[in-house]
Design brief:
Strand content: 15-25%
Number of strands: 10
Order of helices and strands: EHEHEEEHEHEHEEHEH
Structural class: alpha/beta
Strand order of the largest sheet: 3-2-1-9-10
Number of helices: 7
Largest sheet: 5 strands, mixed
Length: 228
């Protein structure tokens, strides 16, 4: 079983802090086998990580967190960014058009752009996999809802730290029963449901720090735009 981190943000995300090299260093230090950087509506850092991952003994999986009209969707195994603001169904289609997997993160965490605020359970079931453990949790209720839903629909399950700072990489991992150590084999195993999840809560003070840092960076960006 490979240990895979499927949900990480770099400094390319509006609310991320650290560059690719620090994220890869942390991933290697905590014993991961593979990692996907999934920035908000940006893919360049993820593609950089794919190129550099072998320097750290890792497999880099290209990915992105897309802001669909319904909420966030992870696109795995794609190499071109998918624009935000598309419908949920079109977002899934665009991911699959590139041969990728559509994984819905934190679907029941509506305050964090979970899709269940705007789509039905039948629509959620169209995803290729469901993130059932997100380490940035308050009570764990939303994670339990996601797990029960995935089990009831026999959908593949994943986990992710949703790290916005490098220290939190590896807080939640997906154990993947891949036949070989490659991007294709990992994605195939996830699609087949050969996964298990494990993780621990991101400490509240770090979640607060991540959120505060993101808000500060968003404010700076908006101020800069006013003077462009």
């Amino acid at each position: 079983m490979l240990s895979v981190e499927l949900h990480v943000h770099s400094s390319l995300s509006y609310d991320g802090r650290d560059p690719v090299e620090l994220i890869l260093e942390q991933a290697a230090a905590v014993g991961l086998d593979a990692i996907a950087i999934t920035d908000h509506d940006e893919i360049d850092a993820s593609l950089e990580a794919v190129e550099r991952a072998s320097e750290y003994g890792l497999i880099g999986i290209p990915g992105i967190e897309i802001s669909s009209k319904a909420g966030h969707v992870l696109g795995m195994g794609i190499d071109e960014a998918i624009p935000p603001g598309l419908s949920y169904d079109e977002t899934l289609e665009r991911i699959r058009d590139q041969g990728g997997l559509a994984i819905v993160p934190h679907p029941f965490q509506e305050s964090r752009h979970g899709v269940m605020a705007r789509i039905s359970r039948s629509e959620l079931a169209r995803a290729d996999a469901i993130e059932v453990y997100n380490s940035r949790l308050l009570t764990g209720r939303a994670n339990r809802q996601a797990e029960r839903f995935a089990e009831s629909r026999d959908l593949p399950m994943t986990a992710g730290s949703d790290a916005h700072i490098s220290e939190m990489v590896g807080q939640a991992v997906t154990r993947v029963g891949a036949n070989e150590q490659s991007i294709g084999a990992i994605l195939e195993a996830i699609a087949d449901g050969r996964t298990s999840v494990e993780g621990k809560r991101t400490p509240w003070h770090i979640s607060f720090r991540q959120a505060a840092g993101g808000a500060k960076r968003r404010m700076k960006s908006r101020v800069a735009e006013l003077f462009e």
